[in-house]
């Protein structure tokens, strides 16, 4: 037997080489591309999109990931797939996101909204920050792609001009478009020619589309290129001195002193993305927005009004051509809001001891309800209100969407512990219930189901829309955030190492209400506690039905009953006969069979024909759409069939014997209980412990006589 080969660790150089192969060197080179001014002008002529405004770039970024039409409560909206990002999805806010993109669209066209502050207003934890973060991350990714490419410039050979600068090179502190280096009249003429060329190209594409029989609306109208404003003070100083030094030979200045650079946005590096948030008034001043004196450079240049001795690194300046977010904007002192006023309307900011500086960026802030209400009641804030577009960001009101929020954070790929089925579902339901207004005709659980697109007898899509229209503040002025629910789930996971179930979470939700700092009204606490009772009652119904289905188990028997029922329904509706399954003889429709199923879901005899017509119509619609009509296709009929089958087999096991308190001595009975447990594990997502616990719980319900066996 040969000697065993010892494990040899790879050499460090080998690891470096292996990792190096995963690095995209070509992309890194592309992102560091350098051009001459002449080459850049050729790039602009060939691809004017490199000179888009901040709003144009943001709008194009969103559209680049695709759209689709959705209908919500009889209203058609465009859903933007950009916000479906796997790492940071935004659920259930189609109306808010649609309104936001319409603002971007208007601003991209230069229709006026580019001179407004976008204000996202809503309760705490309603995804305001998430929307901003998604936009910022999206811009970081988009500007790294070829379709999102943009350029700025830097200075070189500055040391060749005596006394100009204490370094040979300098970057543009605000990442200005190199087109701003063109003399004003020349720049406008160049842009005019580019826009004329774009217009002509668009007209030809529309003409070609019509000639080919295509819809011309599919041709995207190009953005009108516009590079407004002037150079930042430092670059203007350099340009003026260099023009004078080279006897106003602009071409020579460009050739000897300008390098055009590709760049991309990065919040971490403070390039193209700024984020500003309130701090203690004593430790914050306006220089955080507009820049401050560079005291090291001041000792060299001697005057604090010299642009070489000033750091143009405030949030407004570093966000130029990109995106600036204002966190809790209405908590800022009013002197900060004055700077924001100028930045919105004039698209300029005023650094200390310098003229107004042009900026081009998306300005978006967010605030909670109390601060917004305070602004609306403050007459001194009238100027800000006039320059603000307010977009409501409410809590979710759709049960399934709230569930997706929790599943994203507590999915099996993120949590090691077992989370019993319906735990997140019931926690999500409770959160939704706290946000809903009560109705006279139905309870809040039924309302939550209607809002989630489920059907209930007596309610149409129009009646649900009317309900929504009658409660415009739902999701805005009351309810608990997803964060509160997540806190309870997290606490449950910490306290229970093996697994958690709905009652563990609901009990913590109720317990934590007593000392929740975000609830100031005792009445609200009382109402939210009642919502927990409603959620528990709904859970009872869910698990009873689930155990009943596990008991039934035999799908073949249900399919047989379903086929017989539908044969009789069609015969009844058409006034025809049915064939006896054994003799083949013609028979009248079996009313007793049909009623034995319909009664299980409280379809009264007077309403039987309407129900049968609705089922026949449902089947016809599926057939028209090329879909198969199965026993479980219609939720109401499925439930009726399950209950019918349950009734037929329930006598084989006494449900009150499922609980741990029952003394199970019959081996046959134990075998049946074990079979139910196995089905719960195999078909419904339970593990051994949670299946045992749910059987104990359901057994206790039946033992109390809450449900007829």
Provide a compact summary of the structure:
This protein is of the alpha/beta class and 709 residues long. Helices cover 49% and strands 10% of the residues. The protein is built from 28 helices and 19 strands.
Strand and helix layout:
Elements: H1 12-20, H2 25-31, E1 34-35, H3 37-46, H4 54-63, E2 67-72, E3 75-80, H5 94-108, E4 117-121, H6 128-142, E5 150-155, E6 170-171, H7 184-211, H8 233-245, H9 250-257, E7 258-263, E8 273-276, H10 287-290, E9 292-293, H11 295-301, E10 310-311, H12 315-318, E11 323-326, H13 334-345, E12 348-349, E13 357-358, E14 362-367, H14 369-376, H15 382-386, E15 388-392, H16 399-410, E16 418-419, H17 423-435, H18 444-451, H19 461-469, H20 482-495, E17 499-500, H21 502-513, H22 522-552, H23 555-574, E18 578-579, E19 586-587, H24 591-598, H25 608-624, H26 635-649, H27 667-684, H28 688-704
Parallel strand pairs: 4-14, 4-15, 8-11, 11-14, 16-17
Antiparallel strand pairs: 1-7, 2-3, 5-6, 5-7, 9-10, 12-13, 18-19
Helix pairs in contact: 4-5, 4-6, 16-17, 17-21, 17-22, 20-21, 21-22, 22-26, 22-27, 22-28, 23-24, 23-25, 27-28
